[in-house]
Write a structure and sequence with these properties.
This protein is mainly α. The protein has ten helices and no strands. The longest helix is centred in the C-terminal third of the chain and has 28 residues. The termini are far apart.
């Protein structure tokens, strides 16, 4: 048999690197969540969306449940990476704080598709122990990072404030504004959402650079 014929007999997906196949499935799964919620998070639909065979989900992940965890962690890492690009973990505390607020209220975070996918995932956290554990780990890191910036600002200004408690309030407000915007964008927009977060912070810390 010629080399050309042998190559032609290879499964078409065998030519794609394993890490690329994993990423294709994760990206397809996120699109399914954004388009149809958790009801669309099925082996058949994700496989069709990624244009791969059904067996690849079990091959590359611990079944559909394992893929759900990978999707959640991928979206969380994407959010944190966006923050890092805007000095979330570098620079002064006000710079870091402004960076995370700006990042949360602009694309790709602040987009209908992203928020619909998050809403679908959040609905599963309470009933999925593995997802809940992943959420707790990422949430704790997120809250600590914001809390550290807030504590630094409070110390510099000689203001009494519990940075991590205030960070929890900020995160809850951001999540709530996301949900409101996703449900009805005539009620909340990017500028009003961003201003609402600063209003809450400034009530405790004083005027901030916006």
């Amino acid at each position: 048999m010629s080399k050309t014929a042998a190559a032609g007999n290879k499964p078409r997906f065998a030519r794609v690197e394993a890490d690329l196949r994993r990423q294709m499935l994760i990206d397809a799964a996120i699109r399914c969540l954004a388009e149809g919620g958790i009801a669309a998070f099925t082996v058949d639909r994700i496989s069709r969306e990624a244009n791969v065979s059904r067996g690849l989900i079990n091959h590359h992940f611990d079944g559909i449940g394992g893929l759900l965890i990978e999707v959640y962690e991928a979206m969380t890492q994407s959010m944190l990476a966006a923050g890092r690009e805007n000095l979330f973990f570098e620079g002064g505390p006000e710079e870091r704080l402004a960076a995370v607020i700006d990042t949360m209220f602009r694309p790709p975070m602040f987009s209908k598709s992203s928020l619909r996918a998050w809403l679908a995932l959040w609905g599963e956290v309470a009933t999925n122990p593995r997802l809940k554990a992943s959420h707790r780990k990422s949430y704790d890191a997120y809250r600590r990072a914001i809390g550290e910036a807030l504590n630094e600002i409070a110390t510099t200004r000689k203001v009494k404030a519990d940075g991590e408690a205030l960070a929890m309030t900020v995160i809850a407000l951001i999540d709530g504004l996301w949900i409101e915007w996703c449900l009805d964008s005539s009620v909340v927009n990017r500028d009003s959402a961003r201003a609402a977060v600063y209003d809450v912070l400034e009530a405790r810390l004083g005027k901030l650079e916006r």
